[in-house]
UniProtKB/TrEMBL annotation:
<keyword id="KW-0560">Oxidoreductase</keyword>
<keyword id="KW-0812">Transmembrane</keyword>
<keyword id="KW-0479">Metal-binding</keyword>
<dbReference type="InterPro" id="IPR002401">
    <property type="entry name" value="Cyt_P450_E_grp-I"/>
</dbReference>
<protein>
    <submittedName>
        <fullName>Cytochrome P450 2C8-like</fullName>
    </submittedName>
</protein>
<keyword id="KW-1133">Transmembrane helix</keyword>
<dbReference type="InterPro" id="IPR036396">
    <property type="entry name" value="Cyt_P450_sf"/>
</dbReference>
<dbReference type="Pfam" id="PF00067">
    <property type="entry name" value="p450"/>
</dbReference>
<dbReference type="InterPro" id="IPR008069">
    <property type="entry name" value="Cyt_P450_E_grp-I_CYP2D-like"/>
</dbReference>
<keyword id="KW-0472">Membrane</keyword>
<dbReference type="InterPro" id="IPR001128">
    <property type="entry name" value="Cyt_P450"/>
</dbReference>
<keyword id="KW-0408">Iron</keyword>
<feature type="transmembrane region" description="Helical">
    <location>
        <begin position="20"/>
        <end position="37"/>
    </location>
</feature>
<comment type="similarity">
    <text>Belongs to the cytochrome P450 family.</text>
</comment>
<dbReference type="InterPro" id="IPR050182">
    <property type="entry name" value="Cytochrome_P450_fam2"/>
</dbReference>
Amino acid sequence: MTLLNSWRVQTQGPEDMELSASLVLAACVVVLLVFLISRDSGKKYNLPPGPSPLPVIGNLHQLDIKCLFQCFAKLSERYGPVMTVYLGSQRMVVLNGFEAVWEALQDHADEFSGRAHIPIMERLTEGYGLFVSNGERWRQLRRFSLTTLRNYGMGKRSIEEWIQEEARNLVEEFRKNVGSPCDPTFFLSRAVSNVICSMVFGERFEYQDKNFIRLLGLINSTFRLVSSPWTQIYNTFPRVLSCLPGPHNRVLENVKELKAFIAEMIERHKQELKPDSPRDYIDSFLVKIQEEKESPSSEFHDKNMLNSVLNLFLAGTETTSTTLRYGLLLLIKYPHFQDRVQQEIDSVVGRDRPPAMEDRRKMPITDATIHEIQRFADIVPLNIPHKTTRDTSFRGYSIPEGTVVLPVLHSVLYDETQWSSPNSFDPTNFLDENSSFRKNRAFLPFSTGATFHPGLPSHRVELFLFFTTLLQNLSFRSQGDPGKMDATPEVSTFSKVPRRFELIVRSR
C-alpha cells in the first residue's frame, strides 16, 4: 500500500469508505451494462460464434497483436471459418479458409464491398483518396485509376518498355557490387518506385538522387511502422492514443513530408499541363478535374488527387519491392530453384535480348516460381478490412450493415485443402503433371472481388520482368550456408516484411 493510499484509509470514516466502494461498484456495473446492451443489440442478427469479449478490451487479452492471422487460425479451429471477434469495442466478423473468403468476396461481392474505417488511415488521408474511400467517391476514383493505369503509355512507349528499361538499370546497379555482400532493399525499391513514378509523375529519378533516396526511406519507414503492433493498438483505441506520444506520430510526420513532395509535383504539372496530351496519371486527373468542374457530384478535386497519388506511390513502391526482396531471399535459400529458372530463361529468351511479357506463356517454371514466391511470402496476411454495405445473410448468420469483415488472406494462401504443400516453398503448387503452368483459384495475394487492387496489372508485369531480367544477367548466393537463412518475417501484424539480409552478386 502506498503512503497516499494509507493516508486516505486513515482519514476516511467507515461511511465514506462504504460510499466510495458503492460508487466504484456502480460505475463498474454501468460500464458492464453499456457493454452488454451494445452486444445484445446485435443478438437479433444471429451473429457468428466467437470467444466471449471483456468490456473495453474485447478479445485483446486472447490475441497476440504481433501475429493476429495466426490467432484467428487457432480460434477458427474452435468457432469455425466464420466467427465474431472484438478488438476493443470494434465488432469484427473474421473469415478463415478459401471457401468462406471466396464465397464472401465473389458470391456476395456487393454486400462485402465496403471499406472499413481504419483510424490511422483516416487520420493520414482525412477520408480522401483511392484506398480508404467508400460509396460514390470510391467508385469514381477506382474506375478512373483502373482505366488510366491499365492503358497508360507515356509518349510512344508502353509500360512494358518502361519496366524493361528500369530492369536494365537495376542490373547495372547490382553489377557495381559484384563479389561484395550487399543489402538489396534499396536497389529494389528504387527500381520499383521509378516505375510508379513514370506512371504517376511522368519521370524517373536517378538512383543516387538524394531527394529520391530520402522519399524511399520515408516510404520504407512508414510501411514498417504501419505494420507494427503499435499501429494496431492505435486503430483499436484511436481517441486515447491520438493524445499520446508514440510511433504513430512518426507515421504522420513521414506522410506529411511525402504529401509536400507530391503537392510540389502536382503544382508543376498544373503549370505545364496540355489538356489534349496528358503525360501521366496526374495530368489525366487534372484534365478530369477540368472536365467535371461544373458537376456537383464529381469526386475529382485536389484533395482526392493528392491522396490518390499518395496511395499509388506508397502501394506501388512497397508491395512489389517487398515481394521481389522476399523472392531473392527464397531463391538464395533454395538455389536449385534459382538454377531451374535460369535454365528456362536461357532456353526461351537467351542472353542477347531482354525478356518480354510474351515470353511468359513459354516459361511455366519461371511463372510458377514467381506465383509461389507471392503465395509463400503472403505479404498482406490479414487483407484490408472490408465492411458490409447492408444487412447481410451469410452461411446462416445475419450480419448487420456496417460490420467490419476481415477475409484473412493467409488462411487462403496456406489452406491445406487447396495446396499440396502449403507450408513449404514449392513452385510445383502451380505446375501440373506435365510441368505446365496450373492456375489455382486460391491464389489471392491481394484479395479479390470489388475491392481488387487497381495497381495489380502493372504489379504482375513488374514481377515477371524484374525477376527474369535479373536472373538472365546475374546469380545471387548467400554468404554462408543457404539452409540457415531465416525466411520468417520480421513484422507480421498488417504485413509481412522479410528480415534484412545480404547477398553475393555474381555475373553470368
